[in-house]
Amino acid sequence: MPPSGAPGSARAHSGLGMPGIVMENEEFLSSPAARPLRILGEYLHPATIFRDERVTDTITFFGSARIKPPADMLKPGDASDSVGTAGAPSDASEPAASGVAAGFEKYYVESVEMARAITAWSLENAEPRGRRVLVMTGGGPGIMEAANRGAQQAGGQSAGLSIQLPFEEDPNPYISPHLNFNFQYFFMRKYWFLYYARALMVFPGGFGTLDELFETLTLQQTRHIKNVIPVFLFGKSFWERLIDFKFLAECGMISERDLELIRIVDSVPEAMSHLEPILRTAVLQA
Predict the structure, then answer these.
(1) Does any domain span residue 105?
(2) 23 inside domain
(3) pLDDT tens, position by position, for the chain (286 residues)?
(4) Do the domain assignments include residue 167?
(5) Strands laid side by side in the 231-234 sheet
(6) How many domains in the chain?
(7) DSSP H or E stretch at residue 220
(8) pTM score, two decimals?
C-alpha cells in the first residue's frame, strides 16, 4: 500500500471520475485540431460501405440541381418553385433561382433513362460475374435525383454523395439508404466520385458541373488518375454552344488526343452504344 501523499493514493482519493474516451469528445472532434480525423473518416466510412456492398465500378452523373422534371413526372409536393441544393456541387449558391430556360426538362428524363439502362445492364451482365456497376450522383435534386430515380426504377441501387452547403435540403428520396453519404470536405467527395468511375455522364449544369468536368479532364490529361474515364456530354446544342473544344485543340491549348476523352451525345441509345463496349472491356474482361 503506498504511503500517504503518494501519487497513487492521491488518485485513489481524488474523487475524479474516469474521463471519456476521445472519440466521444464532440468538442474535440469538431475542433481544427481534429480535422485529420474527420478527413480520414470521410475516406474510411465510404470505403467500408462500398467494400461491404461489393461495389467494383461506378458511373458518375453530374448536372444541374435546378433542372426540374416535366409535369408528368412530378411527385406530390414537387410543384413549388423552390430550388434544392443538397447535392449540387456549387450550381445553387442562392436559396432560389430565377428558373432554368424552357426545354431543359428533357435532360431530367434522359438522366432517368440513362441510369435505368446502366443499372439494368449491370444487373444482367456484371453482377452475375461478381462485378457491380453502380450509378453515383451528388445526392441532390435535378439531374442527380433523376439518375438515382432511374436506378431505382431498374430495380437496382445507387449512391448519393451529398455535401454540406449554406442552402440545403434533404438528399433526394431515390438514393439507396445505405449508400447515402453526407460529406463535409469537397475534396473527399470528389475522390469518391472518381475512385471507382468507369465513365462520367455530364448533363447541362452550372459552375459545379463544370468544375467536376474540367477537374476530371485535367486529372486524365496529366495522368494523375489511373483509370481512363470517358466523359459523355449530353446535349449537343448546349455543349457545342458553351465550349468549343475543337478550338482549344486548334489553338494548341490541348492536344488532339485530349479530344478523345470527350464524346458529345444526344440520346440514351447513342450513349449506350458507346458505353457498353467500354463496360464490357473494363468490367467483364477485368
Answers:
(1) yes
(2) no
(3) 555 555 554 445 567 778 888 888 888 888 999 999 999 999 999 999 999 999 999 999 999 999 999 988 887 655 443 333 444 444 543 444 457 878 899 999 999 999 999 999 999 999 999 999 999 999 999 999 999 999 999 999 999 999 987 766 689 999 999 999 999 999 999 999 999 999 999 999 999 999 999 999 999 999 998 888 999 999 999 999 999 999 999 999 999 999 999 999 999 999 999 999 999 998 877 6
(4) yes
(5) 180-183, 158-163, 133-137, 57-62, 197-202, 231-234, 262-265
(6) 1
(7) helix 207-221
(8) 0.85
Task: Name residues whose C-beta falls within 8 Å of residue 236's C-beta, 6 or more positions apart in sequence.
Answer: 264, 265, 266
Whether 286 and 198 have beta carbons less than 8 Å apart is answered as no
> Domain limits at 227?
55-284
CB-based contacts of 129: which residues, under 8 Å, 6+ apart?
A: 284
Q: Which residue carries 475534396 as its cell?
A: 187
CA distance 174 to 185: 23
**Spatial separation of the C-alpha atoms in residues 80 and 99, rounded to whole Å:** 12
**In this structure, what CATH number is given to the domain that contains residue 173?**
3.40.50.450
Does residue 216 belong to any structural domain of this protein? yes
Dihedral sign (CA 11, 16, 21, 27): negative
